[in-house]
Amino acid sequence: MDFSPKTFTVADYVVFALMLLVSTAIGIFYAIKDRKKQNTEEFLLGGRSMSAYPVAFSLSVGFMSAVLVLGTPSEVYRYGTMYIWILLSFVLMSTVTAEIYIPTFYNMQLTSVYEYLEKRFSRLIRIEGTLLYMLQTVLYIGIVIYAPALALNAVTGFNLWAAVVSTGIVCIVYSSLGGLKAVIWTDAIQAIIMLAGFLSIIIRGSVVMGGFENIWNKCLEGGRLELWKFDVDPRERHTAWNISFGAGFLFMALYAVNQGQVQRYLSCRSVKEAKKSIMLNNIGLTVLNVFAVMCGLILYAYYQDCDPISFGVLQKPDQLLPYLVLDIFQNYPGMPGLFIACVYSGSLSTVSTAITAMASVTVEDFVKPYFNWEDKTFTWVSRGLVVFYGGVCMLFAYLTSTLGHLLQAAISVLGLVGGPLLGLYTLGIIFPFANSWGAFVGTNAGLAAAIWVFIGSRNYQPSPDFLDELSYSTAMCPGNFTNITTAALTTTLPSPPQTQDNAPPEADLYGLSYMLYTVWGFCWTVGVGLLVSGITCGWYGRKGVDPRLIYPFFDHWVFKCLPESFKKAMRCGVQHDDEKKDDVELYSVTGLKENRATYLNPEFKCDKTEQADINGCSNF
Hints:
- This protein has 620 residues and is an all-alpha fold.
- It is 63% helix and 1% strand.
- The radius of gyration is 25 Å and the shape is globular.
- Keywords: Cell membrane, Glycoprotein, Ion transport, Membrane, Sodium, Sodium transport, Transmembrane, Transmembrane helix, Transport.
- It is found in: Cell membrane.
């Protein structure tokens, strides 16, 4: 292996520039093609006319893309293959999302998923949900933009801020010009580029290492092939349980109730196409993650006897894969450029998803309720907001430099807010007796619990026994490398984080695996939400909830063997059969009688007694 400095060739920059050019061209194409359709539904939802296939591609690369390309291979290099259990979480996520959340949101013909919160609970809950989503998204996008740029800058000399700014500007251009259609079709192209990048590494790495069988044997010798860890201790960093179910909840928070993904379902031409898109997305996620894990195995096999980090060539694990690419493709001009295009395709897809989604919720949740403008004006406001949020994401990018390992940092940020938001929607969709007070207090309790554990984990590190970082070797590193002393040329173990001797009793809780942050916040939100709803008389308002806002969970075919009397009791008095009628009258326990369309209107008012019967003892 060659540790001499490596740089990009002209061909590499040309390949990277072509990727940016194609992305921009798609935005320009749809701006010209749809220039006569200047309305918000066309711009933000693609006219609700998209098929499942491009939407599935877009869903697959909408989140975790750049994080997947750089973070997952280094995860396998450092901790082994336990991460592959994440494939089971995709099955859990896609099944629950397709059967429960997609039908509920799609049949209401929403533009912003947070409209549901106002119809189900109150205006205040809608605003809180929107603000939490925007905070989560801006912080996450900072990671997606900055961390890959930093890794590539350290390895290749690729200008850090040129990469950050070019990513942001290209996203802004094609998203603001072409709207959601341009974003979805660009995502499809970028998914293909990501696959090509992974395949090129797998093929070339297998050739260099004498076949994938040799790679497999080297990883087996190095202890990287670990799959059967079923420990139930929640402090263990990775086990089959916390990855399968912890990541399952994380991906449900991303795919079931996140505006960026729900906006794609709503762009489909039918609920059947929307369900099909999430199932096809499951296949795409599986392929991308399997390829990423294979790249991690190649990474370890190639550097088995000389770890670049222990040897002092690299500083961070996320720099490993770019360094490998430059090593194995040094005689193939343009191939490193393909890899860089692969990484930045991931960044572009995630950033464009985020800025169009934030523009959508801003228009629907904060602009339309207060301004009676023409639809064309709202379209131009949406374009302006895409530009604005693109700039905000670039400004936040520098904040992520202290978050550590890319994959873990990304999952932690998404889980902290994702768990309470998933719990909030689950309260509304599954439990008819959950009311506004329960939703408000439960969401804040879940958010506080998640942040408490996260901050505690930064101050009181878990025991090294739970981290399971594997050993590295520098035994075969070149002894004449100028940056390293001979004392470093030995087999080494990574330095474990220091634990504090006088840790408080709750320090064990701070050791909770980052994979379980979403579950932790979700359980607090639902548990506290149901308790507060019960205390504030939510049970008495359950019959006044519109059936379209509640998913008939026990009416699913999975439970068809259950007695009808049991299923009726589980409906809590909600008459789901009324959904089939165009105009259904709602009756509260005091005799309130209103047309459903009127009840769903945010302007609908009733006196204090009647509103108490609908939403509990009191309402926001």
